[in-house]
Write a structure and sequence with these properties.
mainly alpha, globular, 91 residues, single chain
């Protein structure tokens, strides 16, 4: 198993950079992944849970959603830092 040093890089950033060198991205970013991202976006926008209760929510789904949320928040932070560096203030 490949270990990614998450103290330096986010998992998504590392995969985005390294993926083309060792795998077909279509195998990794399949329709199931895209559907999970769409569910995440829908739940975030509408502020609704994906399942009736936490107990009904599959643990793998929770793990996927937490990973997506972490990566999304990281990207927002990076973009804010870029905007600050470019404009001298946060947008």
């Amino acid at each position: 198993m490949v270990r990614i040093d998450t103290s330096k890089y986010q998992v998504g950033e590392s995969l985005y950079t390294a993926l083309p060198h060792f795998a077909n991205d279509e195998d990794v970013l399949n329709s199931q992944c895209q559907d999970t991202i769409k569910v995440y976006q829908y739940c975030k926008v509408t502020n609704t849970p994906p399942y009736k209760t936490v107990f009904e929510t599959p643990s793998l789904f929770i793990e996927d959603i937490l990973t997506i949320d972490s990566e999304f928040n990281y990207l927002v932070k990076v973009q804010a830092e870029k905007n600050k560096d470019t404009n001298g203030s946060t947008k």
